[in-house]
Amino acid sequence: MIDGIETGYEAKFDFPQSHDAPALPWLLATVPRTGSTFVSHLLWESGCLGAPLEYCNFEPAGPQGFAEADPAAQRALWRRALAHRTSSNGVFGLKAFPLQMEHLQQVNSALTGEVMRTVLGAPGGARVVQLRRRDRTAHAISYARAMLSGVWRKEQERLGAAEPQFSQAALDRALALVDEQEGAWAQMFAALRIVPLVLWYEDAVADPPGAMGQVADFLGVALDPEARVAVPQIERQAPAGDAWRNAIG
Questions:
Q1: Is 26 in contact with 129 (CB distance < 8 Å)?
Q2: What is the mean pLDDT of residues 144-173?
Q3: Local confidence band at 245 (pLDDT 50, 70, 90 cut-offs)
Q4: How far is CA 220 from the centre of its chain?
Q5: Which of 16, 52, 230, 249 has its CB surrounded by the most CB atoms within 10 Å?
Q6: Contact status, residue 199 vs residue 129, Cβ threshold 8 Å
Q7: For 241-246, which contacts have Cβ atoms below 8 Å and span 24 or more sequence positions?
Q8: d(CA 220, CA 222)
Q9: pTM of the model
Q10: Which of 75, 71, 8, 11 is nearest to 38 (CA)?
Q11: Are 85 and 53 a contacting pair, CB within 8 Å?
Q12: For the chain, what is the total number of helices (H) and then of strands (E)?
């Protein structure tokens, strides 16, 4: 959790409790700084696509980092998510980054197996939406600035973090991390013969209802306007400053 900020993991945003396994689990596979918080909340708001948040992010700075060293608590949080974040039509979404799953494998391999079986082992085959960014330069700058400043959400900017100075080393590291993590997803898709729906961040920003409909069609889910739910509103961070782009050139 982030002090003073509604992140969406709070119990007041739960769906009514489900006592059955999700009928349609799916994975939002992405990497940091793809606008995944904006997109996950957009899909969640439909009320028909689950609430695809980072329920397996137990890294120290993550939304459930308080359970980083407690495998039993991690398992309880995962099972709570299944019970309370499955929409009424049986859809459950999980957003994940490769580095999060690698961390979970290191600290709780048994839960990693349970998660993967749940999300990718559904009857009818695995359903995966891969969120990407077309603008690699903007992606790398955003990632580098966030790693330097510790500011990952617009709301954190109000805490007064200084704008980080341009760093070629940080930019190179960010590019390498993007490539490494997208490569990890590609390897998994190939190994499991998964053909994901590729959703581009830029398209989701330009046409949010269209992105919602694209995902719903891919999952085979009918969108019901009456099912829409209130979720925390996500403020988009400002684009990277010209100073970083100019420094690259």
A1: yes
A2: 79
A3: confident
A4: 21
A5: 52
A6: yes
A7: 241/163, 243/166, 244/141, 244/144, 244/145, 244/166, 244/171, 245/137, 245/141
A8: 7
A9: 0.93
A10: 8
A11: yes
A12: 9, 4
